[in-house]
Amino acid sequence: IEMGPYPVGVRTVTFEDPTRTTGGYEGPRQLVCEIWYPATDEARDAVESYVLHEYLPPDLQEQIPAEALGTFNTQALRDAEPRFGRGPFPLIMFSHGKGGIRAQSTFFTVPLASHGYIVVSMDHEGDTIIDLLRTGEVDMNTTVDSFIDRPLDIIFLLDEVIYWDDPLAELIDVARIGIAGHSFGALTSLRTAVMDSRIKAVVAHTPPGVGTVNLALEAPVSTL
After folding, report:
1. Are 47 and 86 in contact (CB under 8 A)?
2. Within the chain, which residues score under 50 in pLDDT?
3. Phi and psi of 53, rounded to 5°?
4. Is the CB of residue 91 less than 8 Å from the CB of residue 172?
């Protein structure tokens, strides 16, 4: 996607769901989010580097060399001033693939923000690259848990972001909300859109078969 007219800012924000927990983790469920948004001109031509090794907890940092995961750059400025006076801007929720990470698809999320969207991408706790590296394999039990938890993450975050006590929330157009995701995130996107009528558009990147998507939903995805 080509970059649009707006410079892009990025923030990392952690939201906590006190009503849920994640197996293998202590305390309430934590949802660490990367939020990209149209920013002021100070962000133009800025570069934000993602060093993936820094995303790992200390025990994995000791086991895995930094060069094994690499670094990539994006056209964004961390904690840049939001572009007030324009908008409001549509809100896009993004769901990463299985064993992924919130910053996995910056080729998509950053250009979206540059075209006038606010993009929120979360780590689905229990189903990230950290969990995959720690176990060394795909665990079917945690996959089933994530099948249930991922849409609940999105629905919870919609409430949190829309009613967030932060100036950035003032830029969100609550009447224009969409969702996108890759692979397991595409599955999450389609299922969540059926479960939450606030979502008006879906872009599902390489989703699984419709039978899996429709499993245990009150209505099929064909009703979208």
Report:
1. no
2. none
3. -60, -30
4. yes
